[in-house]
Design the sequence.
């Protein structure tokens, strides 16, 4: 008799099997009788809590794969909404960005995450190009690109063009042809890697459109991101062109405009954030949750995470001005700047606003203050979140964000104290984008659930556990 009831319980639901294992075989008979007479099917509040938490967490990790294969009428959670039909999803207020089922959802999601990873690598490669002072090696630009020099005569022709630039005449007069080839290849790789992103984005986008995978909303969003990506090439050349002009003073080294560098980097960050957010929305159309208590906890975290995300973005943007002014090569001490906490010349430029973007001392001080404020803000978010009832995925994300913030500050200080070596400086720039990524994922994870999910969660009996 006991064996037949266990078999019926296993056939009824994989989730009920989880509860049976937790409670032990001695209580299976009581479980089965209660489940047969109840629409939601658990015997105690703590069991309902375990069930709902397991369901939403598994949905967060395994989207868009089906977790529960039985009828969605047996379960009210984000996992069941994701496994409903398209009509049911529409009625629940959950708007999917991809049509044609879970397989199409998975394909589009993998593609978008791949594009985001490509942009990440492109930003890091751009940082290495700047740190090796390779960005001004190519003195012309074509939208479609061109083949690199393939013969010694072609290399000499490119080298002659570079010799006419202010950077060669003021900084690199002793440069040999072999040295020039290194910086040329760095810049060429950066440009072609950017064009490769365009190919990686455009062709799958056209394919998914032709197959009908992409909805109108997603199509408009991706079209805007593609336009930004195409414009990024123009912004890059606009930036490089400023470094090919003669400096205003003979005592100033030729370099690109910090304003144009900041514009170029900010545009790359916007493209990256847009692709990452869209990829997350494709594979996780509803945030992971299991009860109204967790929804309320996520709402509290959201109020704190949004301003912290803005601060992380501003700090990253200030780093662009540090790079544009070569401010990392000044005041290579910490925590003081030289012999003082605040340099005397931080407001030496007129008008006053110029100091925050062009004054080396002010730019570095500003970045130090913002980095410290970011560390304290994330630490405060982590401390406050420990006292809230929230989903395990959210707890994990906040802990990871706090750890990444501490690592990023450590990388920044180490880069400064060691006079900006390429390896550490590149790691610091990659760390900034990694921290921004974690904040995006956190903000996306604690967003408000769809009306259908909220309604289903509100109808569940309150947990006493």
Sequence:
């Amino acid at each position: 008799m006991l064996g037949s009831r266990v078999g019926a319980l296993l056939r009824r639901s994989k989730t009920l099997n989880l509860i049976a294992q937790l409670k032990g075989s001695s209580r299976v008979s009581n479980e089965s009788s209660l489940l047969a007479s109840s629409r939601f099917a658990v015997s105690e509040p703590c069991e309902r809590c375990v069930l709902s938490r397991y369901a939403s967490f598994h949905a967060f990790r395994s989207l868009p794969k089906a977790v529960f294969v039985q009828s969605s009428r047996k379960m009210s959670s984000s996992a069941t909404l994701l496994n409903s039909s398209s009509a049911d999803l529409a009625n629940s207020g959950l708007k999917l960005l991809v049509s044609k089922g879970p397989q199409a959802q998975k394909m589009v999601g993998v593609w978008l995450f791949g594009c985001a990873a490509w942009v990440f690598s492109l930003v890091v490669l751009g940082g290495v190009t700047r740190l090796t002072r390779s960005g001004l090696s190519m003195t012309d630009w074509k939208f479609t690109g061109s083949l690199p020099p393939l013969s010694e005569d072609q290399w000499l022709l490119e080298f002659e063009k570079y010799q006419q630039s202010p950077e060669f005449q003021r900084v690199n007069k002793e440069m040999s042809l072999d040295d020039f080839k290194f910086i040329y290849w760095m810049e060429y790789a950066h440009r072609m890697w950017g064009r490769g992103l365009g190919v990686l984005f455009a062709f799958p986008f056209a394919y998914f459109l032709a197959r009908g995978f992409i909805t109108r909303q997603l199509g408009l969003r991706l079209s805007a991101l593609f336009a930004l990506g195409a414009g990024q090439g123009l912004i890059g050349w606009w930036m490089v062109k400023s470094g090919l002009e003669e400096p205003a003073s003979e005592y100033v080294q030729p370099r690109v405009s910090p304003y144009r560098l900041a514009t170029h980097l900010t545009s790359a960050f916007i493209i990256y954030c847009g692709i990452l957010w869209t990829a997350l929305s494709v594979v996780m159309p509803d945030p992971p949750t299991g009860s109204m208590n967790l929804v309320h906890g996520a709402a509290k975290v959201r109020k704190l995470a949004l301003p912290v995300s803005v601060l992380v973005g501003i700090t990253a943007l200030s780093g662009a001005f540090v790079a544009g002014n070569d401010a990392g090569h000044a005041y290579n001490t910490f925590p003081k700047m030289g012999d003082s906490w605040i340099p005397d010349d931080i407001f030496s430029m007129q008008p006053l606003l110029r100091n925050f973007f062009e004054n080396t001392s002010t730019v570095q001080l500003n970045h130090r203050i913002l980095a410290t404020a970011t560390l304290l803000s994330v630490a405060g978010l982590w401390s406050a979140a420990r006292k809230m009832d929230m989903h395990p995925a959210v707890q994990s994300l906040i802990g990871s964000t706090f750890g990444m913030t501490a690592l990023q500050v450590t990388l920044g200080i180490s880069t400064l104290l060691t006079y900006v070596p390429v390896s550490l400086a590149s790691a610091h720039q990659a760390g900034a984008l990694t921290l921004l990524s974690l904040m995006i994922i956190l903000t996306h994870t604690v967003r408000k659930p769809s009306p259908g999910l909220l309604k289903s969660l509100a109808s569940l009996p309150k947990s006493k556990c």
